[in-house]
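Q: Here's a chain of 92 amino acids. Please give me its 3D structure as tokens.
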Amino acid sequence: MSPLFRRNTPAAPRDRLVTLVRKPGCHLCDDAQVVVEKVCADLGVRWEPKDITEDRQLYEQYWEQIPVVLVDGRQHTFWRVNEDRLRKALSD
């Protein structure tokens, strides 16, 4: 199969990664984490939290938008996480 066709094939859930960029004491971050944990558990997708206060690059890029959700390293959403939208992004 040519590389062009493989690139358009959806990644298997185990090959996906959701990153939640957050900070301590942020209630929106806590709400976002509940959604990320649920969707990722349902779909078998790995996820990781990143603390914006411990990463200067993340701080400079996202400090006005937290929480930020990245899907496979690309920004998916910020502030509020919509469960259905995240589920669809991970299923495509």
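Q: Can you summarize the key feature?
A: The chain has one domain: 14-91.
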